[in-house]
Amino acid sequence: MNRLIFLGTGDAMGVPRVYCDCPVCMEARTTGANVRLRSSVLIESETEDFMIDCGPDWRRQLELRGLRFIPTILVTHAHFDHIGGLPEWADACRWTGNRGRLFAPQEVIDTILRQFSWLSGNLDLIPVDQGVQLGGWNIRGWRVNHGKNGYAYAYRLEKDGFSWAYCSDSIGLNEAEILPLHNLNLLVLGTSFYHEEAEYATRSVYDMLEAQELVGKLKPGSTVFTHMSHNVDITRNYGLLEGISLAHTGMNLPLE
Known about the structure:
Distance between the termini: 8 Å
Order of helices and strands: EHEEHEHHEHEEEEEHEHEEE
Strand content: 25-35%
Radius of gyration: 17 Å
């Protein structure tokens, strides 16, 4: 069975914020519904399991799943909340005697190696600019606007007539960037806030109201919002469009 499992659903800082006593952070410290590690997902399939992104919570995410190793990771972009776990992964490869396979666009690989030049000792870093197949999924990525933070990549995955996309870090997508998001069974989209009031030029990820407009145009079969800050309380009903849900740690969805 092909399944999508949310290992992390938080923004760059996670939830709770260590310095914050807001209601969402306090709930995360008590009942814990809003505890959010940095965003990443695990794709399980009959032939191969792989992750998308490897943030600083990578070790904790694997421990929570009872996993001791993951051989393959696909990376969206080279920001710390998406690659901060790479040194730990490489160390796990060293200790277990396995070479990991890191897949990313060449420009992302180049940036990663400028930060962690020694990773190639334990990882194969493989460009995906022409597409790649993992776990039977045909995968292609494309650059998306990440606002003041530059760019990230989104991925469209197709297999046995099922199409879904993972677009965790984007805002204000133009028509060319939106085009691969049409005709999806499932869209996973990053939305840091319900309504973000900061000046638009300073922002880097959609808020839920903006994302809902995009979803209304795209009309995917279903949508899951992820990459959420401590502004978002997943125990609250935000009255979003039918078919939109909020991700939580351990949430898993069939991909078929």
